[in-house]
Specification:
126 residues; mainly beta; four-stranded mixed sheet; 1 helix; extended
């Protein structure tokens, strides 16, 4: 019923050198089935529209039985939000927090995400 979509880039070594491609993928959140919707060097409007038509085709489109499609446009949350599947560690670990030496008495600030549904707590730098 719910699917999520995202883009990522991949670099491919070709005869002409290193080439960057943009990959558009969809994941069915219930089955965790991933579908590569498209792959292109330079995305453009006509390509996006054609891939969207393919995904929503009433006969064999990957999204034909889905009611909702979500897309997270925030690329910076990997540095803030912990992942429960990884023992509550960050997806992208930081070498050393800038506020590591703030001490237990330092004030804690909150930054909200998703209209306050998610919160990121940190100690501001002194």
């Amino acid at each position: 019923m719910i699917a999520a979509t995202e883009f990522f880039t991949v670099e491919v070594l070709t005869v002409g050198g290193l080439v960057r491609y943009v990959v558009w993928f969809i994941i069915d959140l219930e089955s965790r089935c991933v579908h590569i919707a498209g792959l292109i060097r330079h995305p453009h409007d006509a390509w996006i529209q054609q891939v969207a038509r393919n995904l929503t085709d009433s006969v064999d489109g990957f999204l034909r039985s889905k009611r909702y499609l979500i897309h997270d446009r925030d690329p910076h949350y990997h540095l803030e939000r912990n992942h429960q599947g990884l023992d509550n560690r960050l997806l992208t670990a930081v070498a050393a927090p800038a506020n590591e030496n703030a001490g237990p008495g330092a004030p804690v600030a909150r930054r909200g995400r998703l209209a306050g549904i998610l919160s990121y707590y940190y100690r501001p730098a002194a």
